[in-house]
TrEMBL record:
The protein's name in its UniProt record: UPF0597 protein EXD82_01775
Family: Belongs to the UPF0597 family.
One Gene Ontology term of the molecular function aspect: L-cysteine desulfhydrase activity
InterPro entries: Ser_deHydtase-like_asu, UPF0597
Pfam families: SDH_alpha (PF03313)
Organism whose genome encodes this protein: Peptacetobacter hominis
GO terms, biological process: L-cysteine catabolic process to pyruvate
Positions of the Serine dehydratase-like alpha subunit domain: 87-426
Length: 435
């Protein structure tokens, strides 16, 4: 097998980082903060364009510190008080006074945010005009990846892709994950230096703290709080599956309702981070492990998530928590439970057979329901695969190997469901129209 430990560690450092708030509106706030800094004066006019996936995910989600939902207030927060140097934690640095000022800014100014067709599922363009200057900022590919900066017609940065939409697929650069295998990823994680991945343990502390907020009182949907009270009342068992489901959904309840605290994200998504990390945290609480082993389980979880996202796309018509992060988590859990490689891969096959139809209908408080399902399935399928209960080959989209299954999942989620994504957005737009 290839020795790709260095590349995988670098990937973990790039893809596992703190984020405050849902990463789609955060990305817009970050772009607006950068544009305002570049403009250097008060904003007189604004025009913002985002990909359909960004628009869908930012439409109805809570924004940290504010009672107003959605992309427009996040944009205002970026303009009023955001600092681009804070990256995906751009909203964390705003004071309560700045949040109120942002809400007032939204009341008094027309904020233009429009969905546009884009070959990249993550695409944002912010155009700001002041009394004397005009700027353009573009983000593409990743939520914090600036690809274009322009001021008064002078290009400051241009890392925009050069291919056209017609030849984009042919000219796509090969990635490390294109030719990787699950076995190769696990093998390389086992050989990593603990010091290189020790930082992943911070994700447990960070995401566990968010879960505590959702368990203390009913926030958002109240999934985690409801599961907690049902266990207390004896209506649900106090077992590992329900405990993982309780922690993960409680953290989503708090995060999606706009609680101003950071979570450790995974592959550009805070909810992915909750799903990839908290079921493992639940297992470690019930069955204590050495930090070295826990960090490796987390590394497997994040990297398998990245492996699947490589084929399904950064944003997808399918719920990434269910079809990527939860599959990554079940792989990490299986490894932590001492499963053999065939059982680790079997747990992933079970998840593909289980949750591959879960759609993404935007980021919102109701995501807690999906995370409850995803996290419980991750634990359940790890436990079942360890006992030899594995979906056999050539069942639906489950292929002859786990790697074939992952590619099939990617084909269904990307090419197969592109029309589904358009329909979902149209339905959501109709529902949100002011009558």
């Amino acid at each position: 097998m290839r020795d790709i430990r260095k590349e995988l560690v670098e990937m973990l450092k790039n893809e596992v980082k703190p984020a405050v708030g849902c990463t789609e509106p955060v990305a817009l706030a970050l772009a607006c903060a950068k544009a305002k800094e570049l403009l250097g004066e008060d904003v007189k006019e604004n025009r913002m364009y985002v990909s359909h996936n960004i628009y869908k995910n930012g439409m109805g989600v809570g924004i940290p510190g504010s009672k107003i939902l959605g992309l427009k207030v996040a944009a205002c927060m970026g303009i009023v008080g955001g600092k681009s140097e804070d990256g995906l934690s751009v909203l964390e640095g705003l004071s309560e006074e700045q949040v109120r000022e942002s809400e007032k800014y939204l009341e008094e100014n027309a904020i233009s945010v429009e969905p546009v067709e884009s070959t990249d599922k993550i695409f944002l363009e912010v155009n700001l005009k002041g009394e004397n200057h005009e700027v353009t900022v573009k983000v593409r590919g990743r939520h914090d990846n600036f690809t274009y900066l322009e001021k008064d017609g002078e290009v400051i940065m241009d890392n925009e892709p050069k291919q056209t939409s017609e030849n984009a697929a042919e000219e796509r650069k090969e990635t490390l994950m294109d030719n990787a295998t699950v076995a190769e990823i696990v093998h390389n994680v086992e050989g990593m230096e603990f010091e290189d991945i020790k930082f992943l343990l911070e994700g447990i502390k960070m995401n566990r703290a968010m879960a505590e907020v959702g368990l203390k009182e009913k926030t958002g949907v109240g999934m985690g709080y409801g599961i907690k009270t049902a266990v207390k009342d004896g209506e649900l068992g106090d077992d590992l599956v329900n405990y993982a489901m309780m922690l993960t959904s409680a953290a989503s309840d708090a995060r999606m309702s706009g609680v101003k605290m950071p979570v450790m994200s995974s592959n550009g998504s805070g909810n992915h981070g909750l799903t990839a990390i908290l079921p493992i945290a639940a297992y470690v609480e019930r069955c204590p492990q050495e930090d070295d082993k826990t960090a490796r389980a987390l590394a497997i979880s994040h990297l398998i998530t990245a492996y699947i996202k490589n084929f399904t796309g950064r944003l997808s018509p399918m719920c990434g928590c269910g079809v990527a992060a939860a599959i990554g988590c079940t792989a990490g859990l299986s490894w932590l439970m001492g499963a053999e490689q065939s059982q680790i891969e079997g747990a992933m096959e079970n998840m593909i057979a289980d949750l591959s139809g879960m759609i993404c209908d935007g980021a919102k408080p109701g995501c807690a329901c999906k995370l409850a399902t995803a996290s419980s399935a991750a634990v359940q399928n790890a436990l079942l695969a360890k006992r030899g209960c594995i979906v056999p080959a050539l069942n639906g989209i489950v292929g002859r190997s786990v790697d074939e299954s992952v590619r099939a999942l990617g084909c269904v989620g990307d090419a197969g469901m592109s029309v589904t994504d358009e329909v979902i957005l149209n339905v959501m737009n109709e529902m949100n129209k002011v009558q």
